[in-house]
Specification:
heterodimer, A: ABC transporter transmembrane region fold, Rossmann fold, 3 domains, six-stranded mixed sheet, four-stranded antiparallel sheet, elongated, B: about 600 residues, alpha/beta, about 65% helix
Chain lengths: ~600, ~600
């Protein structure tokens, strides 16, 4: 099982590298080998010079060697530099491509999965996974491969002179590594504990350094409170840091002791061989530096192996994320009929995943293409949830939603969602251009399409505003990426979002969810007038807790605590004695009439 | 070139400032840095001299000395490693403390500034960069760079001493190579900084595409408007942009590195040749040959190090100077007088007050003259952007009037102690904050609440109508709100959060209560209920409502109608309706929908 994971992740990394850039792996190998050649030259060179001059050789001969070796080194370093430069760009492209794939995945995942409370954590782990495993091919092909070459070369030297040094180098490194692994394990447990604290610290810092918080804090003691919490947190963090640095110290001590043994042993052996006349003075130098090179090579190999071992887990986090199913998009393959007539909720109940209470209970209604429907109810009655179900963001827990008698989940996802143009209560604006905020990627290419767009802008009352902008529709929206960006007022944004719904090509059904919540009375009035003039081709659904907005609908459904309480036209519902709708309507309108005002005065 | 002469000068001036700052934050950390450089420098010489010494011992067959030297060297290395790790341990702990302390300083400075200053993008940027510097422990690494500069200079002197037997013209070669290294390093640094600057925008856009757009709250629209192809395409384009910038600078940088390497190579050839001939002439022992060659190589590294430090110091110094700028920002809160006690018939008076945001041309408020009698219920209405919130910000002292005066019981509020003055007000802002702590913490915002505090908070929960909600929470009032601080936290609905924010504001025995349209997402019934309840809770106190639902105006004694930065109308509901101007229009437009 575990082996499979390792293999799978390593193969994935190799494949991904090959797919992103075919030349990456050859470059890695070439760069690694050239670096090794440099190392080898640097190791042999001083000994060679020493051997020539101390052997009474001619200075000219030494000079030739000096010059040629140095030139060779420069040439190698040019080549390595060239390869490294290319590799650096490959690396950037590789991680970003993986991130891009991941974003595509995120935008295709089931909405329910993305709203799950553990989702953020999953996302962060997967995204971290990309960066923390991104050097796998580097270590595999550049480091490990070339270091093996170095180890073989130095081993060759030791076999010729005295093998024991190789054995000691090997033994001390293994011992050091084993101890280190043990300590790292302990530290990891501490780190997990600390990660919680670090997250909290980050939250506190984000909060403390937030403009809105600082404004709020002008009127209360939030700053003192938050600083106090942070100080407490620092104490907890320090405890863990102390534990970990103590472990570090132990680890370092072991490492230093191993180095001590290695150094002393290498020198003693070299000296012994020297006295025995088996080593020339230059060989002595070579022997010592070979031992050093071997140690370095071993360490780097061990580190590389360790990196890959960890990277496999990180990469696995990423792959797990990438394998999350996209059932919302993939289920259903029926074509949506060109003409349809009726949308039906049949006994629909719904509770959010992981929750026990139902948000909607036994909801049944039908709406025809030629009707304007309104859904009303107080905060928390389930109005917005209903829209989410209709848009296939969630699936009903029981019951069915049918379009012309066929479950909406049986239709092809893209076809189905293309039918609807919603205006959400919590609409978003994007730091793209103004135009892109309306039509996103479906840039109108022809002048005719552009004219259509201006027709829409005229309808929502934004034409003058946008025509007056220096770059028109191409003006960047928000100042985030461009200081010349523009920000609309609340009312203008609302119009922008409505224009977006109008501009959604091929969408004949509109859904308007509380479109006037944060507007001043005059802007509210304007927008209301606008949306009442909307004539959708297919379905038109209004959602509001302000009954003034919805009274013109052909059919009004009153939701109360997730259950359909009343249904009918405004006149029908006003006709019900003690009806919920009637009561709500009377209360709301009473705020604007004098009689009730006097009544409430009396009650006081 | 983004590194300018003036910024160099500024940076050098701020050296002393940062050493002083760090000294104040943690003396130990500075000493640790000093200690680590002392042993590093000693070690450099050990490494340069040791191999030569060994070779001489070998050549002279002084094996006993050799063994002593190896033993001493090994023990030195062992001890060095231990001391270094102890220093590391101590500085990790110091850094953590320094971070906390420095953040505290920065936040306290932020509190002392006027809100208006904090909203100034330039000052806020300093604040944010200062935070980043603090988190990266930039002050200590900056000081460390300065020290290492000094020690590298000492090292350089030492190496020159070792090489003292060189003829004078060798020094010229050193000087020339130093100039080349310096030029190359500077070129590299300038290019790195420029690259960072130029990559900044595409990288920020990529982060936007990666970490924001695909996730909630965008996720809903992303699906229904099928944004994926568009976002992915734009992301890929931005990536190519970023890579082409990186490619350009990488090329410059690696070319400069090549020049430095060629210099290395020539230096190496030259000095090897020089020492080979000296050795051949019998002027050097084997050991001295080795020491000299090592010293030459070490020399070029040292010079490179010094140049790199100078450049790094100025780069990070530019960033760090934001800390200095921020901590030295003069607060616009200059008043010192303790504000007079709240009196029932007190007055807050605006005299010819105008306001425009710093750096802006147009006035948000123009010539406001109004007397607010304490104890009255006031409603402020007007279109989006008419200046309502600015009016409140001026009244509470968050902003300083551009022109005119605001008087509290006849005293100019600019002369009052700002903290004390703000204490008169309880405010729920348009975007009020709910913190990731418990319900109780959110109400009290107190470090170690006493039993009295807790029972007080419980009372507030009852009175604001949150009891039902709190009883349903797993840990009652000790439940964490949101998962931002505690993974077991719970979310509250909009209405519940709203009530929680009001409960907090009630806690303080303030005298003037302000609710700035915090109810946009509530249904009219809920909003009305909250206002009604609130009205009862603070009866007899001054209350100021800002709302778009004009229904709430009818609860008020007086209504101020703002239009285009001016007070267009002033009166109660009936008089304003009779006047038949903006207020009447707004009211009837809302009312007509129910007609």
């Amino acid at each position: 099982m575990r082996k499979n994971k390792t293999l799978k992740c390593i193969l994935f990394q190799i494949k991904k590298s090959y797919k992103t850039n075919k030349s990456e792996i050859p470059y890695l190998i070439a760069a690694g080998l050239m670096e090794e050649a440099q190392n080898m030259l640097s190791m042999l060179f001083p000994a060679a010079i020493l051997s020539i001059i101390s052997g009474g050789g001619k200075a000219q001969k030494a000079l030739i060697i000096v010059t040629s070796v140095n030139l060779l080194l420069v040439i190698f370093s040019f080549l390595v530099e060239y390869a490294s430069r290319a590799l650096c760009l490959h690396g950037i492209r590789l991680v970003n491509t993986m991130q891009l794939d991941m974003n595509r995945k995120t935008m295709h995942m089931n909405y329910a999965d993305i709203k799950e409370s553990s989702y953020i954590n999953k996302y962060d782990t997967a995204s971290d996974g990309i960066w923390k495993s991104s050097d796998t091919v580097h270590y595999l092909f550049r480091v490990i491969l070339s270091r093996v070459v170095m180890i073989s070369a130095t081993l060759f030297i030791f076999i010729r002179v005295h093998f024991a040094v190789a054995a000691v180098v090997f033994a001390t490194i293994i011992f050091d590594y084993a101890m280190n692994a043990h300590i790292v394990k302990k530290q990891h447990a501490n780190d997990t504990e600390n990660a919680v604290y670090r997250n909290r610290q980050k939250y506190l810092d984000d909060t403390l350094f937030d403009q809105n918080v600082q404004k709020d804090a002008s009127f209360n003691s939030a700053n003192a409170f938050l600083l106090h919490k942070r100080k407490e947190l620092t104490k907890s963090i320090l405890q863990v840091v102390r534990k970990n640095t103590m472990l570090d110290f132990t680890d370092n001590t072991i490492g230093a002791a191993c180095t001590l043994v290695r150094t002393v042993f290498t020198y003693l052996i070299a000296l012994k061989q020297y006295i025995a006349g088996k080593l020339h003075i230059a060989d002595f130098l070579l022997f010592i530096s070979a031992a050093q090179q071997m140690t370095d090579a071993f360490f780097q190999m061990v580190n590389a192996a360790e990196y890959i071992r960890k990277a496999v887990n990180y990469c696995d986090d990423y792959l797990k994320y990438m394998e999350i199913p996209e059932t919302d998009r993939t289920e259903g393959n029926l074509e949506v009929p060109k003409h349809f007539h009726v949308l039906e909720f049949r006994n629909v109940s719904f509770k959010y995943p992981g929750r026990s209470e139902y948000v909607l209970r036994n909801l049944s209604f039908t709406v025809n293409t030629n009707e304007v429907m309104a859904i009303v109810g107080d905060n928390g009655a389930g109005k917005s949830t209903l829209v989410k179900l209709l848009l296939r963001l969630y699936k009903p827990s029981s019951g069915e939603i049918l379009l012309d008698g066929v479950s909406i989940h049986d239709y092809r996802y893209d076809d189905y969602t293309a039918l609807f143009a919603p205006v959400f209560q919590d609409y978003m604006t994007y730091s793209f251009t103004v135009g892109e905020n309306i039509y996103f990627g479906n840039t109108p290419a022809s002048a005719g399409a552009n004219a259509d767009l201006y027709k829409i802008l005229d309808k929502v009352g934004l034409k003058d505003k946008i025509s007056a902008l220096p770059e028109g529709l191409d003006t960047p929206y928000t100042k985030r990426f461009d200081p010349h960006g523009i920000v609309f007022s609340g009312g203008e944004e609302q119009r922008l979002v409505i224009a977006r719904a109008f501009a959604k090509a091929g969408a004949g059904s509109m859904i308007l969810d509380e479109p006037t919540a944060s507007l001043d009375p005059l802007a509210e009035y304007e927008i209301n007038k606008l949306i009442h003039s909307v004539a959708a081709d297919d379905f038109l659904i209004f959602i509001s807790h302000r009954l003034s907005t919805t009274k013109f609908a052909d059919k009004i459904i009153v939701l109360q605590n997730g259950e359909p309480a009343e249904e009918g036209s405004h006149a029908d519902l006003m006709g019900l004695d003690n009806g919920i709708y009637k009561t709500m309507y009377c209360i709301q309108s009473s705020y604007y009439t004098d009689e009730t005002m006097r009544m409430s005065e009396k009650n006081k | 070139m983004s590194i300018k002469k003036s910024s160099f000068k500024k940076v050098f001036k701020s050296y002393a400032y940062f050493i002083k700052l760090q000294w104040k934050l943690s003396k130990v950390s500075i000493l640790l840095v000093l200690l680590s450089y002392i042993i590093e420098t000693v070690n450099t010489f050990v490494i340069v001299i040791f191999p030569g010494f060994i070779l001489d011992c070998l050549a002279e067959r002084m094996y006993r000395n050799l063994i002593y030297a190896v033993a001493a060297f090994s023990i030195w290395q062992f001890a060095l490693s231990l001391v270094k790790s102890l220093i590391q341990r101590a500085s990790d702990i110091q850094n953590e403390q320094v971070k906390t302390e420095l953040n505290r300083m920065l936040v306290e400075k932020a509190i002392s500034l006027r809100q208006e200053q904090l909203e100034n993008p330039e000052i806020f940027e300093r604040f944010e960069i200062a935070r980043m510097c603090s988190n990266d422990c930039l002050t200590i690494s900056f000081i460390s760079s300065i020290f290492s500069f000094v020690f590298l200079a000492v090292e350089l002197a030492g190496l020159l001493y070792i090489l003292k037997s060189m003829p004078w013209w060798c020094i010229i070669i050193f000087v020339i190579s130093t100039i080349i290294y310096a030029a190359a390093n500077r070129f590299i640094a300038v290019n790195s900084i420029n690259a960072e600057e130029e990559e900044n925008k595409p990288n920020r856009i990529m982060r936007y595409f990666s970490y924001e757009v695909p996730k909630p709250p965008y996720a809903k629209e992303v699906r229904i408007f099928d944004l994926q192809p568009f976002v992915s395409q734009r992301h890929a384009e931005t990536l190519e942009q970023s890579i082409s910038v990186t490619r350009k600078y990488l090329k410059h940088i690696s070319n400069a590195q090549q020049y430095a390497r060629i210099t290395d190579c020539l230096l190496s050839i030259f000095f090897y040749a020089f020492y080979i001939f000296r050795f051949a002439a019998g002027k050097l022992t084997v050991g001295m040959f080795s020491v000299s060659v090592n010293a030459v190589f070490r020399f070029s590294q040292t010079v490179n190090g010094i140049v790199a430090r100078v450049i790094n110091c100025s780069a990070s110094g530019v960033r760090l100077s934001k800390i200095k700028d921020f901590l030295e920002t003069k607060s616009l809160n200059t008043g010192t007088i303790k504000p007079p006690e709240y009196k029932e018939n007190g007055i807050i008076e605006f005299v010819n007050v105008s306001y425009r945001y710093p750096g802006r041309e147009e006035y948000v408020l123009k010539n406001i003259n109004v007397r607010i009698n304490l104890g009255e219920k006031l409603s402020i209405v007007g279109r989006n952007g008419a200046g309502k919130t600015t009016f409140i910000s001026l009244m509470t002292g968050l902003y300083k009037p551009t022109q005119g005066k605001i008087l509290y019981n006849g005293i100019d509020i600019e002369t009052l102690d700002s903290e004390e003055y703000a204490r008169l007000f309880s405010v729920v802002l348009q975007n009020y904050q709910i913190y990731g702590f418990t319900v109780l913490d959110n109400i009290l915002l107190k470090e170690n609440p006493s039993n009295d505090d807790i029972s007080e908070a419980e009372r507030r929960i009852d009175r604001i109508g949150l009891r039902g909600t709190v009883e349903k929470l797993p840990e009652k009032a000790d439940t964490y709100i949101t998962q931002r601080f505690n993974k077991d936290g719970t979310e509250l609905s909009g209405g519940e959060s709203q009530k929680l924010a009001i409960a907090r504001m009630l806690k303080r025995n303030s005298d003037i209560y302000i609710l700035d349209e915090p109810t946009a997402s509530l249904s009219p019934q809920n909003e009305y209920e909250i206002y009604r309840r609130f009205d009862e809770l603070v009866s007899g106190k001054t209350v100021i409502f800002i709302s778009h639902r004009l229904s709430s105006c009818r609860l008020c004694d007086r209504i101020l109608v703002f239009d285009n930065g001016e007070i267009a109308e002033d009166g109660n509901h009936d008089t304003l309706m009779k006047k038949n101007a903006l207020y009447a229009e707004m009211f009837s437009k809302q009312a007509v929908l129910y007609a």
